[in-house]
Specification:
Chain lengths: ~270, ~300
């Protein structure tokens, strides 16, 4: 029979996907300076080291500012594009949407490298702000993908009813559309936040001397002494990502249920 | 009532759509299209000390393409990206098939969610974990040692050298891009009208033949999308060759980064980037053209 063997294969595949991540907590709590078996005792030392680290604290601060701003701006830009894309036909729609969605496939080194050239030749100094510019660019396609589902499962007749009852364009959007797509918006913000928090290449090119979490981690990987602390940090980062994604998924599903759409599953 | 031409334009669907998309479009034009054009323009400029001489020349391209190091790095990148694409798509197809055909609808979104989680969690950490796993004193070698399999006269003499090989880079990237391949294939499989499969079997085809003659051709748009969405970003990967290849097996992105940042030769870096992207675009277009007959019906 074919059915059970396919299921076993899929489960094995899932295990393969998660295997590296499962190692994180094991070594984050392991009382040994090298990452190897057999395990030594249990320790919280690496987490303590993590909290005592000043550069790391600054990196966390920067990353939170960048991720928060990215979440807001990418979602706002995503709302415009998803709304236009799912409701209107207009000339040049294909090329325009294609350009907006391009960062999905374009290697990040192209985005980061080309932005770096322009920023430097225009004379803008590299900072947290320039990282936000790049992150908004790469997060927007994902927000559009999520918001598209939210907007396209929205029933047009609800908005038409509001127009007929005398509401204007903006108040209809605020009173009818927005509450219905709000779960989609929250989900999109959380995804954009997670993308930005984990993004390395663009931050590496555009952050100048400011550390972000990933660039800080990258700079520490050369020092074997720091590895256990990085494992502890990675554990926190992965745990945070999973929590944010779970909340995002919850809101995405609620949004679809609210607008009466069918769950096609997944973010894309 | 006579409407002025302007107000007709203002209230047309096209104008509304364009007005609405304009903030995002302008952002993408300013921060994506313009930079890409700049990098294209820079690739024809000359590098002066600390400045760029704006004088159109093909020197950079001639230098790039006559450089055997560039050619071997590009070749390595293409081979790695090709292997990674082959591995991810081949391994992902059965999973996508399982998700689409063998799961009850209410279980699908849970599985999809579980598959996408690792894809969203820190890429850098996941790549680094492979270094920890494959290292000389890493998880695999130390695990084998504590099982008593490594040592003089044992099954394996010395710890296995896995890092700094093309194989290790391939495994790491294949793992990193796995979910990328599942989603487009899954979407294509979901679109298949199930009655077509029944029709195939009613007309006397075996299960395997139905799969080959109905399911697979209809899934091809998803497979093509999966190939492109894995192949193109993999070619431009920077982190994995740096961490897993130990910097000794650079790929194109490492070369671009070295020219743009430490060497500060922006025209040369641009020329490398444009050359690599041109090659990738050609291969991708060729691949799409090869599969045109499957894609035509997809619209």
């Amino acid at each position: 029979m074919k059915l059970p063997s396919l299921r076993i294969y899929a489960l094995a595949y899932l295990l393969f996907l998660y295997a590296p991540i499962l190692l994180l907590p094991i070594f984050a709590f392991n009382d040994g300076t090298i990452i190897a078996f057999p395990l030594k005792g249990f320790t919280l030392e690496w987490f303590g080291q993590m909290f005592a680290n000043d550069t790391l604290r600054r990196a966390v601060g920067n990353s939170l500012i960048i991720a928060g701003s990215t979440a807001v701006f990418a979602t706002v830009l995503g709302i415009f594009a998803a709304r236009a894309g799912s409701r209107f036909r207009f000339p040049g729609k294909g090329p325009i949407m294609g350009l907006i969605m391009l960062p999905l496939v374009l290697p990040e080194i192209m985005v980061g490298g080309s932005l770096l050239l322009v920023l430097l030749s225009v004379g803008i100094e590299l900072s947290v702000f320039t990282v936000i510019l790049g992150h908004v660019l790469i997060a927007t396609p994902y927000t559009i993908a999520i918001l598209n589902t939210a907007f396209s499962s929205l029933d047009v007749s609800l908005e038409e009813a509001a127009y007929d009852l005398g509401e204007g364009k903006w108040s209809t959007f605020r009173l009818i559309t927005l509450p219905l797509v709000l779960p989609g918006i929250i989900s999109s913000m959380l995804i954009a936040f997670t993308i930005s928090l984990d993004e390395f290449i663009i931050a590496f090119f555009l952050a100048g001397n400011e550390p972000t979490l990933p660039t800080y981690i990258f700079s520490q990987l050369r020092f074997p002494k720091q590895i256990p602390m990085i494992m502890a940090l990675g554990t926190c980062l992965v745990a945070l990502s999973i929590i944010l994604l779970t909340i995002a998924e919850y809101f995405r599903r609620r949004g679809i249920a609210k607008t009466g759409g069918k769950d096609t599953g997944g973010f894309l | 009532m006579a409407q002025s031409a302007w107000s007709r334009i203002k209230h047309s669907e096209a104008a509304n759509g364009l007005a609405l998309v304009s903030p995002t479009a302008i952002y993408a034009i300013l921060l994506l299209a313009a930079p890409l054009l700049t990098i294209f323009a820079f690739s024809f400029f000359k590098d002066g000390y600390l400045t760029v001489i704006r004088e159109v020349t093909l020197e950079n391209y001639i230098a790039v393409w006559s450089d055997p190091i560039f050619r071997s790095i590009l070749l390595r990148s293409l081979i790695v990206a090709g292997l990674v694409t082959l591995a991810t798509v081949a391994l992902a197809f059965p999973v996508a098939y399982f998700l689409s055909f063998k799961l009850r609808p209410e279980r699908k979104s849970l599985w999809l969610f579980l598959i996408t989680i690792p894809f969203w969690t820190s890429y850098l950490i996941r790549v680094f974990l492979w270094k920890v796993i494959l290292g000389y004193n890493g998880v695999i070698n130390s695990g084998l040692k504590s099982l008593g399999l490594i040592g003089d006269g044992r099954l394996i003499e010395d710890p296995i050298q896995m890092l700094n090989t093309v194989g290790a880079i391939t495994v790491t990237l294949a793992h990193a891009y796995a979910p990328f391949a599942i989603l487009p294939i899954f979407v294509a499989l979901e679109k298949i009208d199930r009655s077509l499969l029944e029709a195939g079997q009613d007309l006397g085809e075996s299960k395997a033949m139905t799969f080959l003659r109905v399911t697979l051709p209809l899934a091809m748009p998803g497979v093509v999308a999966a190939v492109l969405i894995v192949f193109i970003p993999t070619i431009g990967d920077y982190v994995t060759p740096e961490l897993i290849g130990g910097g000794k097996l650079p790929m194109v992105a490492n070369m671009i980064q070295a020219q743009l940042l430490p060497l500060d030769n922006k025209p040369m870096g641009s020329a490398i980037a444009i050359s690599a992207m041109a090659v990738v675009a050609l291969i991708s277009l060729g691949f799409v053209a090869m599969n045109r007959r499957y894609l035509r019906g997809a619209k």
